[in-house]
Amino acid sequence: MTRVLTARTVNGIACYSPDVAESYADYPDAAFEVTDAEVERSFWVRSRNRLFGWLVQQDVTRLGRANLLDIGCGTGSFLGKIIDMPGLSATGSEIYLSGLKIAQKRQPRAEFIQFDVTQGVLDRQFDIITAFDVLEHVEQDEAGFRNIHDMLSDDGTYIMSVPQHAFLWSRLDEIVHHKRRYSRADLLTKLIAVGFEPQRVTSQVFFLFPLVVVSRLLDRSISGAAPTDDAQALLARVSFPRPVNWLFDKIMRLDEALIRMGLSLPFGSTLIVVARKSGA
């Protein structure tokens, strides 16, 4: 039987999984400040927010009104892009308090809670659940998928992304505590097993994929000489000069355009799945 979690307040935040709120076992504490500093400049984050914002809008239009839960909201970047969407009520959840404290400052109008999706479910259901680059951080991803399924309304939609292709594993995956990179077959098998029916499956970072492959291979070869401090090492890998961010942002728009047209891109460093409950 699925465990329904209850909250207690810690530092002004409703915590449904307080025992892990400050463990930082699956994501480094310092990474929240690093990613928050880069979020507005990063071509990857900007592209992700545009595409996923569009996907959410499709479902809000379909449903008329929707209650959304963003699992692993980090510092609240995505919620900030959709919070004013007509008909949408959004809640951000994050397992670690460091990210939530930044998110609350950045998005004071949004609701944020502390929650470990592998431990159980919340005492309410949601019409849209999103989890962008989250489940690769946890050992028990099947439990996470099952709990997400149980929290989703019968006609709701689950929108998710994960890092793809095991051969791209590099020092970056280790820095941010990834447990795996998924294959398309592995992810779909796990989703179907808990009762999801994929509606849309596509890769992202398609046109930039050759550069991703080269950068990850180089990362493996120089990792021994790279900074050992996780914050410095992460910053070195996610920070790009302004002209590079501008150029890559334009290239990512090609990915977005093809996905909006309904095409499934065959490969890329990110895998995206839009799913609903089987038989819904």
From TrEMBL:
Keywords annotated in UniProt: Methyltransferase, Transferase
Superkingdom: Bacteria
Enzyme Commission designation: 2.1.-.-
GO biological process, one term: methylation
Gene Ontology molecular function, alphabetical: methyltransferase activity
UniProt key word Nuclease: no
Protein name: Class I SAM-dependent methyltransferase
Source organism of the structure: Sedimentitalea todarodis
Record lineage: Bacteria, Pseudomonadati, Pseudomonadota, Alphaproteobacteria, Rhodobacterales
